[in-house]
Amino acid sequence: MANTAQLIRRQSSRDLYAQRSLERMEMKELRGRLVNMENGHPSHRAHVMYGATNQAFEDTSPRQASETPSKESSVEEKAFKPENGETERESWDSKLTFLLATVGYAVGLGNVWRFPYLAQKNGGGAFLIPYFVMLAIEGIPIFYLELAIGQRLRKGAIGVWHQVSPYLGGIGISSAVVSFNVALYYNSIIAWCLFYFAQSFQAELPWSECPKKYFKNGSYITEPECAASSPTQYFWYRTTLQISEDINYPETFNYKIALALIIAWILVYMCMIKGIASSGKVVYVTATFPYIVLVIFFFRGITLKGMSDGLIHLFTPKWERILDPVVWLEAGTQIFFSLGLAFGGLIAFSSYNPVDNNCYRDAIMVSMTNCLTSMFAGIVVFSIIGFKATMVYEKCLSSRNETLLELFGSGYRSMVFPEPGDNVTVRLNGSLTRLVMPHLPECDLQKELDNTASGTGLAFIIFTEAINQFPGAQFWSVLFFLMLFTLGIDSQFGTLEGVVTSIVDMKLFPNLRKEYLTGGICLLCCLLSMGFAHGAGSYIFLLFDMYSGNFPLLIIALFECIGISYVYGVKRFADDIESMTGQRPGIYWLICWKYLSPLAMISILISSFAELAVEGSGYDAWISSEGDTVRKPWPVWAILLVLVLVLASVLWIPGLAICRYFGIQVIEDEERAWFPAEDLRDFHGIEPHTVSTLETILFCTRPDGTDGCCWPGCCETDDDE
């Protein structure tokens, strides 16, 4: 039986519908009177936490942040109190904290060191067309889907998909396994950034020039490996990685990187020790600092010589590249992974939001912020690469001209030079002299601009080489690697949060406090990550980077769309979103969830497998004697490891469904998190949705407005709970 507060609130809601023009302060005052009444008596609770909109949300956070609720932020706490006595769920202390955490999770290292490379490689400005097309049909729709389903069902990835259907619980487990695998190797990047950051405080950057090799008699020469390559390559491959020449022979254990890994995992744990209560505070720094540094580098970059050459090279459109299917494949892949889809982190983050949070606005805002950050980072990176290329080009010209001046005198400017090795007769000091034409260095600015890389090659080799040319290089190096560190660590928060929340929701360790669980996971990852701290560690890192996430995440996201569209039902999902936000998703989003996004992911999967079958796969091994990399095939054990990584992630989806079919319960059934559907509809003034003819044709909606349940075990409507 509804209590007095519920009856008062419902009557007041009807009054509010007729008075839409009331001032916000009047509405707050009215709702304040309702919130403070419980069974006719004043309530002693004076404050309402952001996200704590009903008593069904379990709150394990020690924090007691207070905010005055409004229609835009939170529905009344007491008016939507369930009768089953459940406790509050852990929640964000403010909307800004959630947005910063989500932006920090989505905006990562790929925005800085992957997008600029792909843009200049795949048609410059023309690449933006497939990039934004894939954003519209794949990126934003799945981002929106994950935020909405997490907010609606109020669980981590495992709990959410198990509630959609017990046969789909494997989707959540797969997300957790992939997140664990990615978190395992991702912290290696953070460790490398910490190592470079520490080295940046030296009086002279250690990668600015080649070291000397000394002999017993006191003489010395330039280190041959460095002389054959470059100072930045030598420092990266030899000093930092202590790399071996083959993945089968690790040679040495890298104690420096092992120590950096330990420090990195300690930092991650300290930031996550209290769950979102602690990581939510850290993101105020980690999510904003990269933008501050990018702006600083932007203003530095636009003042550099050659900046315009770099930007012209980046954005000059090559329209013929649009017809290349590989360009569309790489655009879709970049959108998918830069937004952090299918990891479970977005679902976990949104599950801590209030029930009436506008997840649609959040999805658009964060997705566009992510893409605009990629473009801005591209401008910053290529303004500096343009400067580096110009410096190398001018140095080459200077060396070339000095050689010609020494051989031919000042008259060389009007000469037509023969081929290298040919004899040439010139007049020097009044007499004819016969010379052999030497080999001259080839000076080509366009070739230098094309000499870019993605990933670690861009960050630790090319960009550090450009920083060497800056006055006060140490300052710029500290800023750059601190930026990479903050970009990496807040993405790591979201990835690990997907693992932790899933384990908590599965109740694998029901009596273990969350900080102990987080510490145990970080300790396990730290021990396993020592596999990346030896001579062949960078090759194993590359293997994990290429295969532990790519294929499994695409498959997981495909089943997410199938689960919502064909099991939960797009009409029902649209009803839920309308209840939460007061605004029904347009038919475009429903078409994306049911047709366009799955087709895009199937196309990317098929194209990726075809590319792998045609071109094969391997790794670039560093050969110290040549000062260069050589392509080598993966050994058999590495291919088996790839199969284990992929299958251990995706086999949970069919495996758990088969177990459920035969009555084997892997995930424990539990009550759904309380969701005040009717109260939210009253609050937003939502009328029953009339199904259009177009919706009936496109989505097979029944005449009574219901979705056909085409999957055994599909959860029943719980709107009236």
From TrEMBL:
Query: What are the transmembrane regions?
Result: 96-115, 127-147, 167-198, 253-270, 282-302, 335-352, 364-385, 478-504, 516-544, 550-570, 591-614, 634-653
Q: Which GO terms describe its molecular function?
A: metal ion binding; symporter activity
**Could you tell me where this protein is found in the cell?**
Membrane
Biased-composition ranges, Basic and acidic residues, are: 69-88
Name of a matching Pfam family: SNF
- Binding of Na(+) occurs at G104, A106, V107, N111, S338, N370, L487, D490, S491
Q: What membrane topology does the UniProt entry give?
A: Multi-pass membrane protein
SUPFAM superfamilies, per database record: SNF-like (SSF161070)
Q: Which CDD domains match?
A: SLC6sbd-B0AT-like (cd10332)
An example of a Gene Ontology cellular component annotation for this protein is: plasma membrane
Family statement drawn from the similarity comment of this UniProt entry: Belongs to the sodium:neurotransmitter symporter (SNF) (TC 2.A.22) family.
Q: What is this protein called?
A: Transporter
